[in-house]
Design brief:
By secondary structure, the chain is an alpha+beta fold. It has 3 helices and 7 strands. Strands 1, 2, 3, 4, 5, 6 and 7 form a 7-stranded mixed β-sheet that branches. Strand 4 and strand 5 form a beta hairpin. Helix 1 packs antiparallel against helix 2 and helix 2 runs antiparallel to helix 3.
Length: 152
């Protein structure tokens, strides 16, 4: 009888811990998705100050023009002559490994920087790292989506 009781308690505890982890991942996805959208809005509004607290000190951005570090990103925010008319994101996916989170999604942008029309849509990847209680952006990379012919 004691054995059955112990096994039942262990089963319930294991199920509860598993459910808690799933809820945590859902809450993390919701939080990081909101942070990602705020970052796009900050870029649209030329809000360089937002990125000072959002980016990890060793953060990198990988894009069509190459690789930039945090300092270059913030400086570029002030110097770039970008006109961002609209942005939107969809299809967020989250992969977790310890205190590292990888968020992928599809983004649409109607924007021009220095007379260069930015590609849309793009597939984006953001890597976040948890430092203490705060999630920080560690890496952002985007790839223009290819137009795929349905008959291929």
């Amino acid at each position: 009888m004691k054995r059955i009781l112990i096994l039942t308690v262990l089963t319930v505890l294991t199920a509860s811990l598993s459910l808690g982890q799933k809820m945590d991942k859902g809450a993390i996805k919701e939080k990081l998705t909101a942070m990602e959208k705020k970052a796009w809005d900050a870029w649209k509004n030329h809000d360089a100050d937002f990125f000072k607290g959002y980016l990890a000190d060793e953060a990198l951005l990988v894009g069509a023009s190459g690789v930039m570090n945090k300092e270059q990103m913030i400086k570029g925010m002030d110097e770039a002559s970008c006109e961002v008319r609209s942005v939107s994101q969809e299809d967020f996916q989250l992969v977790m490994s310890g205190d590292t989170a990888i968020l992928t999604y599809k983004a649409h942008q109607d924007a021009t920087c220095d007379e260069y029309v930015l590609p849309t849509p793009v597939w984006a990847t953001s890597v976040y790292v948890k430092r203490g209680e705060q999630w920080l952006s560690l890496l952002y990379q985007e790839t223009p989506a290819m137009a795929m012919d349905a008959e291929e």
